[in-house]
Amino acid sequence: MDLPSNKWIVHLLVCCFVVGVNCNSVDKKIYVKLNYTVSCVRLLNATHQIGCQSSLSGNVGVLHVLESEDNLDWVLSSGPNPPYMVILESPLFTRSVMMKLKSGSSRVAGVAVVAPNTNPAGAFSPHTTCPNENSGVYSETYDPAMANCNKTVWNPLGNGLSYEEFDFPIFSLKDDNDTQVIRQCYLDHNRAVNGSRPRYPLCAMQLYSLMFAVTDTATCMRRNDINLSINPEMVCDPLGDYNVWASTRPLNNTAKGHKMWESAVVAAARLDSRSFFFDIAPGAQSGVSGFVALLAAAHALRDVVQEAPPNRTILYTFFQGETFDYIGSSRMVYDMENNQFAVDLDNIHSVLEVGQVGLRNDSKLWLHTDPVSRRNDSVNKEVEDLIANLRLAATNLSVTPEVPTASQPLPPSSFQRFLRARPIPGVVLEDHQSAFTSRFYESMYDNAEYLNVSYPPNLTPEEQLRFVTESAKALTEVATLVARALYRQAGGAETQLVNINADSQTVTQMLYGFLVRTNNSWFQQLIPSDFMSHLTNRPPNLYVGAVQQSSEPTVLVQFLMANLTGSTVNVTQENCQNQREDENDKESRHMYIYMWVQGAVPPNSTQRQGFCVRSTARLSKAVSPAFDLREFTSKDYSTWTESRWKPISGRIFLVASHELEMLTLGVGVGVLLTSLLLTYVISAKADILFSSGREPTNATY
């Protein structure tokens, strides 16, 4: 290729680059992209679908900031520029407003909810009034009088919004600069003044959250099985994750099923939560308070179970997906029934579950039991013994265990799935006697602020991490109670109880990590280096999510459990990662899990000193058995799936009047036609227009 040709190529590339840059610049001048967009997504079960979605190209509407519920008439009937993209301040994000918008959805393009920086004064729970009512133990066959929350409505503040279907997108926006730009755009262009009609151009918003799955779980799973290409498109995934479990005595995890002479006390807590928006599920009261208390209790028992081992094994279990019809607990019970777990149901002696324990208004904790199974004399005796152990454990503590006076069913709890299999003695520990004390059950406001995890001003993140809050002190008392009761229930000596005390420093660090920011110096020490990128400057999202890999909360709880209950062993990093003590060790992997964690940075050094932790903290599958059995319409197991979606985004821009758009289109078409006509004329007359006198071929100079 000659030099002139190369120059032309270079010029062409430069022109393409300039055009691309100019296009990008024009895009930025037209659109303001929203940086923080969290959407409501579509979920499906055996019978129907819930959630939200946009159209194929995204929903576009004229911005309208709803100032009061009385102002809804502008959106639903009188406003001259539908469809509208409604901006809601948090006090207006109620069932009443949302159902009115749903009924007028032909004039509603979408909704954006401005999440406040502080919690509202009132109550907000988008969950139902009777959580998991069709998947627990209380049915028409078990006890009709207690089915469907007939005796106790556990969540009376629930408005059920999370279980409604909306045919438009609903986003959550942070109250930050983006939100200020949206408000200002509305004030400058869209707000009607003195009853006058807003004049063009108007401020508009586009929200994009296209969901792939429709109808129900059976439909979407059937579409998953249709393979019409090399890379088939999946439309939905089962909800699920992994349970975390550990035991005070090592159990051979390779030999599944019944263990002779083994008797285990199950200590349970749930790991997950949810809210209306899939990526904001802090779960402070509904999840964190319970599993932090159980983690601290396990830590308090680490030394005493080695020095004075009780007769029975304590089996710590942290269940995932309990919000969605007890995914994790139903899977563990199913595995126990089918010899797919380290022990079976015959090995289970009793259950102590730690539920919502973070909002004690007084010194009382309530001991909930199942009145139906207690009709069996042997079960009733074991339950009475467990209650007595809990009362004994409270000696010299500021916590008073109480039994509800009225006969009532168990609150929503993982223990119910064990009772569905067989009558097992058990107690569920809660901070409420009947209805939940939480005003924000399963909502985005169930956060650190609601649990009163707060710090004095001007503390650095490191100082906040180590500051023992009042909430941490109260939860430490609960953890001590749980630890002592578990030890006695497992057959430990009463004389050892005084030596069992939870550590408030450990509790406060866990609360900080799970409710403020996971990226802190303590969590960094307890994890492998390849998990560092998962730590963030915000609390983890406790929504269980779709089955793909273990979630951040699951992994963190496993590593915490390993570090808090395990021991440091002097082995090389290679042997540790290969699950062995040395090259000849073939047995330890069946009994223990080995984890190489990165450790702390010593003073005057920049390199962390890693070490190997040996523990019994393992993961087990937390996916509904319905998907293994391919029973997508099952009434016995959870059938919840999550739709897959295109990238979720939002942006605002100015939109011209319809008349101006038509005029612009007409002018554009006219210019196009004129250009085509001129091109045709010039092409037809090219010989005349571009002819020039030619010199004869034999001309010489």
Plain-language structure description:
The chain is an alpha/beta fold and 701 residues long. Among the domains are: 31-226 and 648-660, no CATH class; 263-528, Zn peptidases (Aminopeptidase, 3-Layer(aba) Sandwich). Helix 7 runs parallel beside helix 9 (415-421) and helix 11 (470-489) packs across helix 12. The longest helix has 28 residues, at 3-30. The relative contact order is 0.14. Residues 39-213 form the Nicastrin small lobe domain.
Question: Mean pLDDT across all residues, rounded?
Answer: 92
The major pleated sheet works out as: 8 strands, mixed
CATH class membership of the domain at 263-528: Alpha Beta
Fraction of residues in helix = 25-40%
Structure classification: alpha/beta
The whole-angstrom Rg is 31 Å
- β-sheet strand percentage: 15-25%
CATH superfamily of the domain at 263-528: Zn peptidases
The CATH topology of the domain at 263-528 corresponds to Aminopeptidase
How far apart the termini lie comes to 32 Å
* Strand order in the largest sheet: 1-23-9-5-6-7-8-2
The total of beta strands comes to 23
**How many H/I helical runs?**
19
Shape label: globular
- Please give the CATH architecture of the domain at 263-528: 3-Layer(aba) Sandwich
Membrane topology: Single-pass type I membrane protein
Keywords: Glycoprotein, Membrane, Notch signaling pathway, Signal, Transmembrane, Transmembrane helix
Transmembrane segments: 662-682
Domain Nicastrin small lobe: 39-213
